[in-house]
Design brief:
This protein is an alpha/beta fold and 276 residues long. Helices cover 38% and strands 18% of the residues. The chain has one domain: Vaccinia Virus protein VP39 (Rossmann fold). The radius of gyration is 18 Å and the shape is globular.
């Protein structure tokens, strides 16, 4: 399906890397039930309902940049006409398995869309990736494709002290703190609406795990990097989802002081006009 105002992508983007297909498969199989994904959705869609939806025009255009295997893109369809793009053909194939059609292969380093085509752009754990060569430039390009008054919603990895094998497995190049992400958003031309850490409840356990992993990696550097994602018993996913749903309600209203993830909602000034 054709995208609104799409322009040709830059030459050579097929050569840009991505996660391995096995990792996309793992995401595809876990995203519906795993407590981490469910809890993140609980927060971000609460934010959209509470702070974004009232400002959207009828039938808004929404872009999920770096849509991955598509579960968030599918949910975004509840709010308007949702389009997804990703650099990885593997990711798009899983999105198609979900029945999604508004898909394009595109590089988030230079979003191939004309100015002011979207009302909301989302990045779900995309900007941290090593293939994003300049995250501020990507945010500046997002301002360009947003209509005046449009929104950008970001989730990503938080705090460099939590770096570990999971980051390596997912090709993570950076983790964010609130001051740093705010500065990047404002430098790109956004006004920050809400900025908070998330997964405060699990932060102590994650912090301890990362310290142990770093010690193990120092002793045994030959060990391959591994993802944290794995199947859990249903009772554990249900229990963690219930606990973190309460945290999501708090994080949507307040700024949490710490967490392993960061969530930002920012807005393009209604008076700002993109310059091609």
């Amino acid at each position: 399906m054709e995208f609104p105002g799409r322009t040709p992508g830059p030459p050579g983007y097929d050569k840009i890397g991505s996660m391995e297909r096995d990792e996309y498969r793992r995401h595809f199989e876990l995203e519906e039930s795993h407590w981490w994904f469910r809890s993140r959705r609980a927060l971000v869609f609460r934010l959209i309902r509470a702070r974004v939806r009232a400002f959207l025009p009828p039938s808004p255009r929404i872009l999920d940049a770096g849509c991955g295997t598509g579960i968030n893109l599918a949910r975004l369809g509840d709010f308007g006409r949702a389009f997804g793009c990703d650099i990885a053909a593997e990711a798009l194939s899983f999105s198609r398995e979900r029945g999604l059609l508004r898909l394009a292969r595109a590089d988030a380093n230079r979003l191939p869309f004309l100015d002011e085509r979207f009302d909301l752009v989302t990045f779900f754990d995309v900007l941290y990736h090593r293939d994003i060569t300049d995250d501020t430039a990507t945010l500046r390009d997002t301002v360009r494709i947003l209509r005046p008054g449009g929104f950008c919603l970001i989730t990503d990895s938080a705090l460099e002290k939590l770096r570990g094998p999971h980051d390596e497995a997912h090709h993570g190049a950076r983790r964010y703190d609130k001051a740093g992400l705010r500065a990047k958003l404002e430098a790109a031309g956004f006004e920050v609406v809400h900025l908070t850490y998330f997964f405060m409840t699990t932060y102590p356990a994650v912090s301890l795990r990362r310290r142990l992993e770093r010690r193990q990696a120092a002793r045994r550097p030959q060990l391959a990097a591994q993802s944290d994602l794995s199947f859990n018993p249903r009772w554990l996913d249900a229990a963690m989802s219930g606990i973190l749903k309460l945290e999501a309600g708090l994080a949507a209203r307040r700024t949490l002081p710490v967490g392993s993830s960061i969530v930002a909602l920012a807005r393009k000034s209604a008076g700002r006009v993109s310059l091609s």
